[in-house]
Amino acid sequence: MHRALATLPRPTAARPADVPIGRRFLFADPRRAALTVLGVAAALLLVLLLEGIFAGAINQVTRYIRTSPAQVFISQDGVRTMHMSASALPPEVAPQVRSAVGVAWVAPIWFASGSVAGPAGRQLSYLIGYDTGTGRGGPNELLSGRAPGPGEAIVDEQAAEAVGAGVGETVTVL
């Protein structure tokens, strides 16, 4: 058998003790309430800002793949993106892929992360080599200039502006 040590009063609807303690502390001092709301708003704004920066960065680092006419990219196991990754396939893979039904063409992507430097500065960039004879793996369109020859490079519009280079000017790659 158990004995009752105390009895509690029945709850009523309008008692201040029934308000959660967090809400009582928050609204006891109007300055504290305002600072708390501002702090939460600032944290939310920071999260949205960082999400925007991340989305913009992902948009840029996936641009080559998104704008390529290729429908399938093949890489070694475990490589899921070109960003800060490297993938090397054995030489026998290209003929195997080329012989698959529905494959129109096969071309390697010669890719490295590096920099382009010009008169106005240096820009970190993805450096992508391609077969200029077929154009496969290269840019979808050239805004100005022509396909590069030996010792020449195509610089995208954003990088050219950042390094202060125009068509026919000298830039240092890597």
Textual characterization of the structure:
The chain is of the alpha+beta class. The chain has a domain of 42 residues. 33% of the residues lie in helices and 11% in strands. It has five helices and three strands; from the N terminus they run H-H-H-H-E-E-H-E. The chain has a three-stranded antiparallel sheet with strand order 2-1-3. The model has no long low-confidence stretch (mean pLDDT 84).
Element layout with pairings:
Layout (H helix, E strand, L loop, with lengths): L20 H8 L1 H32 L1 H5 L25 H6 L11 E9 L2 E9 L27 H7 L8 E2 L1
Antiparallel strand pairs: 1-2, 1-3
Keywords, separated by commas or semicolons:
174 residues; alpha+beta; three-stranded antiparallel β-sheet; 5 helices; elongated
Along the chain, the helix and strand elements come as HHHHEEHE
Low-confidence stretches: none
- Using the alpha-carbon principal axes, give the shape: elongated
Would you count the extended β strands for me? 3
Largest sheet: 3 strands, antiparallel
User: Which structural class fits the helix and strand makeup?
Assistant: alpha+beta
State mean pLDDT (0 to 100 scale). 84
Which strands sit side by side, in order, in the main sheet?
2-1-3
